[in-house]
Specification:
With 343 residues, the chain is mostly helical. The protein has 20 helices and no strands. Among the domains are: 70 residues, no CATH class; 76 residues.
Amino acid sequence: MVDGYSINGEMEKAREVFEKMPERNCFAWSSMVSGYCKKGDVKEAKFIFDRIPVRNLVNWNSLISGYVQNGFCEEAMKAFDEMRMQGYEPDEVTAVSVLSACAQSGLLDVGREIHDMIIEKGLECNQIVLNALVDMYAKCGDLARARSVFEGMTERNTACWNAMISGFSVHGQCEEALELFSMMESSEERLDEITFLSVLSACAHGGFVDEGMQIFSKIKKYGLVANVKHYGCLVDLFGRAGRLNEAYGLIKRMPMEPNDTVWGAMLGACRIHLDMEMTERVAIEINNLNSETDSDQNAHCVLLSNIYASSERWEKAERLRLVRTSEGFQKTPGCSSFMPRVS
């Protein structure tokens, strides 16, 4: 009952049954920890975890995995270190969670240590573990190591292909991303929305306009429907190439309402090419958006102000600055984080 309620996200009912249990085994404790983490209530998950009288590896894995799923990577690494200090040996589930934390945080050195640990302890390198390694190396920028693990896999699923294509795209190796996309098409693996999003992003950053248009046209072929992110990539593709009229026309023809990210990409292209006529048209569209958050409005105002300043239209740049000041927009302060190495 506890697990059933937890899986369905009904944590109040799960808690009610849980508190009435005369005895609780490790499975019940882990179900509660995982359930709260799935709901995003990490604080309550930790509270439950701290109540466990005798913990085992399953309990620790539930907590570490929950931290990672909610983006609390530093806490995940601390829990991992504490788990090992208390004498618990990690298994494949632990390794996958910690590798994901490294991938999200860009901790390449720690990720390499986890890889070494997997080999030293003889943990099973199943597809999930190998996928996690590829994803970690790709996101952290060690594309040679990511490709090495990828090439050594006897079986590859969609997530693994996507991790490699996205890694090449994010780190500027756009031709390699396109090459891998072609290889994936030739394989028997199914392409999904993330595959197309990653390769279209590579086309935009690499300036491959014709290739990008051709790839975009294939989305329907694979039984998929292009969403606003795919259209945003295409707008970015046209914009970076200086084809602003085509980008604007695409936005107006989109089958869904363009969001602030799409208009932001368009505005960024206007800045690159200093097209003031198009900037004015985009500025009107942005002013008509009703769904923007304050941070979105602030970012767009800053970008518009910079475009006007670059074109020596000081009066409009100053006017935008005064608008931002009068409406109370503040620059978001930067922040940094420190992550300890695996002991």
